């Protein structure tokens, strides 16, 4: 009798690399290709099951049915509590496992979270998905959440967290076709640091590239995937594409002519899994086979990708007899422990923006709860399905008597032929001679309105081009329930459907349908039957306190595919706040939004903000309002006074544009790190020292109030002298101090001095300069209570000489970063006459000539000037011949005598020149 031995890839005691080697050797090339799609084909002869990447779990399990819904990611980050964020990740992964054990195909263990794009611009439609505008804070928050998702077992992954979205992705506007200008310092000091901690710590084991291009090259083809991300990872790193992004390489981006060519490039660049055509893998696999057959791909390229895929599956325990997580059942889904955690997370996420002493509430028996968000909880696109909803009204009603109104206008709409009537069964809207139908009008801001039929309680939507009233509210990937109102003569208006851009017209039967022709839109007269503002004022006047709950709708006010143009609170909601405050000075404005907002009434005595807070929002709100808990949240973004203070949405150069709290020179509405407490704190005895390459700072924090409180102690540094422009302030660490009245605590910061480095473009590496620095500590980026100076011994950056890469310049005007080749390298391009790049401190001692590597679609001219781009001495001129896009010429020109060290401007004299490098060494 012979015993059957399991193959080595099924031996959990064998080294992981050996197990991968064994399984790869057993697979045919066809079987290996089948593993490169999101829906990986089974290999029945080896007992390898089908596998799918991509379960959404941004702030709880999403899209698969009711599961615990935690606050949005931006809300979790506002807790400034890494352990809490980790525990939320643990709970979310529990629920993923519970669904997976019931339906392995429906709930895969490769989870797509967290989002680590730094929140450079609050107008980004996906702002609520990220953590912070600070890359370091983003990175440590992401690492905490990913650590909870991956589980605590050292060798076995609970789930496989995937970071989204690499790289430089903060706009939805034309997101598949725009290229993010990424100077080397912004790349190395701002964008990449957000990805590093979760990868380097092994918390995240996969990465998803973004839809956009970076410096002219699609992010899915970035050489940084292999050269940087995989260099950080302690183990294999899986790279999965975003949905339908591979197809963009030949369509929207037109970067390659054929899909086999594009897909081959993607695999070589590091992509392991194609998320294309949903579960229909045939076309993608066919293109990969063709790439192999034509020599665009080699089998070893496929093997490299397959190793990354199988590494994750092996580490998930797929081929073991069991894992530490096999006993997780659906009893964990929305269990009492997860409900309590959702409540804790929501409570700790609230940020008290302003308080004139009204909060915490006391001696209150009757509260007026007012506003469009007062008695509803809203799900965002990546939210789970709420198992229950504790609204603001419900949470406060458990404390005292509440009276409520949504504070929306009730209106009729009438055309010349008669009023608009809603079908009682939820069917088509129609114009006919009858008693006018009534609608409640919701203003979500940015010109987006929704109408709810009073008759049916359902919202007006569009079905097959016909207006119906059958939806519970704005919802779905294509939101069909929002309209713009365009003025027409005699005080009438036309409705324009936002999703389609079509107008609302009326057929001969009176049924309202979408039409393309604006001139054929039906003119409607709107009559306000009941003013929401007036109703709110009357209600507020009859209460001890008014709580006005305002904010955004996550599917309307910017979301995936749609950015915002304004930060202003919807005008109707803004008017309600002002009217309520006038009717009752004891008014609390509660903002619920996934991004910073502005409003007009500066006299509101108390303002409280949170992101959309999940199922326990109302309970958490009540606990904070009534002072059961100190408001612990702090802002992780700058709240600007207006979008006018922001650079262009597509300007990714935070250094040149003075963007984010690091470089912003204005006075914000609320600064990064801001958040008030119900008590007061004093800072004393700031001490700092450097020894053995470590910076250590200590400060004593005391609760000087009469109630317990939580202080988020924030440490910032500023380099006071440098070769380059330095941040005005940069977060280096924080700690949460929970202090009883009168209690003091010493808070300590320890960071390696190497963390004070910046990217030196002259030598393509990080450098710590010898320079004085300032250490600052306080309550926010601008409320800094103490500071002290310290010296750092480092390097002095020498003058530049020899070969200068064009992308490594110091400053620029009117240039664009582009790809040097399709595979690697950056260059600069401009079609603006007089555009320039600046190289500071170039040593021209003994240099008599320069060789420029450049190309031009039309033929062009480059001039090197000393000291000034317009009037500086012209040292050399280079005629650039007409070339194809990636065909460059080395052009030599004599250099005017200019011994010594100079600032050199390279000026683009006319259209369409691409510059790769300048070589001053050849003529020395």
From TrEMBL:
Tagged with keyword Transit peptide: no
Pfam families in alphabetical order: CBM_6, Fn3-like, Glyco_hydro_3, Glyco_hydro_3_C
Ranges of residues in domain Fibronectin type III-like: 711-781
Cited CDD domains: beta-trefoil_FSCN_BglX-like, CBM6_xylanase-like
A GO molecular-function annotation: xylan 1,4-beta-xylosidase activity
Coiled coil region boundaries: none
Keywords of the record: Hydrolase, Signal
GO terms under biological process: arabinan catabolic process; xylan catabolic process
Function: Catalyzes the hydrolysis of a non-reducing terminal alpha-L-arabinopyranosidic linkage in ginsenoside Rb2 (alpha-L-arabinopyranosyl-(1->6)-alpha-D-glucopyranosyl) to release alpha-D-glucopyranosyl (Rd). It is not able to hydrolyze alpha-L-arabinofuranosyl-(1->6)-alpha-D-glucopyranosyl (Rc).
UniProt-recorded name of the protein: Exo-alpha-(1->6)-L-arabinopyranosidase
